[in-house]
Amino acid sequence: MNTSQPDRSRRRLLTRSLAAAATISLPAVSFQANAQSRQVLKAGDQKGGLRALLEAANGLEGLGYDIQWSEFPAAAPLAEALNAAAVDSGPIGDAPLIFALAAGTRVKAIGANRSDSYGTAVLVRPDSALKTAADLKGKSIATNRGSIGHYVTLKAITAAGLKPEEVSIRFLAPADAKLALTQGSVDAWATWEPYTAMAEVSQHARVLVSGRGLLPGLSYLAATDAAIAAKRPVLQDFLQRVVKAQLWSYRNVDAYSAALARIIGIPPEAAKLQFERRRQKWIPIDAQVIADQQGTADFYRQVGLIKQPLDVKGTFDAGFGVAAGA
């Protein structure tokens, strides 16, 4: 079916807008002189974490392709960029991926990792009178719509016997949400690492409810269907470099934490705290991963965030081969 001219124009406008909103750190990362026949991987990132990992571990040496980085403050704008083909791939949590897929974004998870979910949490001011998730009844919580912060909010309140309509959720980007909390405009802020560690280290907030025991701790490297079809060897190489860099980071905790703090511009104490407690490991896309992801989709359907049931099996491409224990 041919695309109409207005549709093409809207798509070009959205792509340009997303590109402008993202921070392009460098036009490309390149280590070979002949660039004319080289493919370019348009790599999205959140808070510079993926690029920091690769740079700290020297994981970008000897590339046979170029990388054009785009940085986003959260998963939602990254998902929009994937939908608009402004980026080929990027890291995204389990809940934001469900939200993107339900909205029709043509992406698949090509790599999976699991981590401790403590840092995905509902935060309150240090002097807040709130003590448990049940205390959130009638309170206001800031977070990104469809984010893992949104997810942990809904998980926390339903586990406490509350209904979603018994709290007021305000959808704000991380920087705005933090400001709203510290200024008292909201009662709580639901967020993720490294924002949680940064808020704790600066003593701007404390954890009211953590995601530990509530969330499966899954995140993914997602890629668009078009990129998988056109750049599969590039994506395969990129994913393997990320996996190797993660292994390096656990053998060099202090060096990596210092590099992470420097590259993404956060306090060294926050970088080390969030890194050590996440204990992130890349894992194969197996039956347990798919079952856990289906549970997330079913929960989102249950609370009304997605309108139709979503079978997640078709949203994975397990052919990129991350080994167990990576």
Automatic annotation (TrEMBL):
Organism: Variovorax paradoxus
Reported function: Part of a binding-protein-dependent transport system for aliphatic sulfonates. Putative binding protein.
Family in the record: Belongs to the bacterial solute-binding protein SsuA/TauA family.
Annotated Gene Ontology cellular component terms: membrane
Gene Ontology molecular function terms on file: ATPase-coupled transmembrane transporter activity
CDD domains from the UniProt entry: PBP2_SsuA_like_2 (cd13558)
Source lineage: Bacteria, Pseudomonadati, Pseudomonadota, Betaproteobacteria, Burkholderiales
Descriptive protein name: Putative aliphatic sulfonates-binding protein
Keywords, in A-Z order: Signal, Transport
Domain of life per record: Bacteria
PANTHER family: ABC TRANSPORTER SUBSTRATE-BINDING PROTEIN, ALIPHATIC SULFONATES-BINDING PROTEIN-RELATED
Signal peptide: 1-35
PROSITE patterns: TAT
Keyword flag Signal: yes
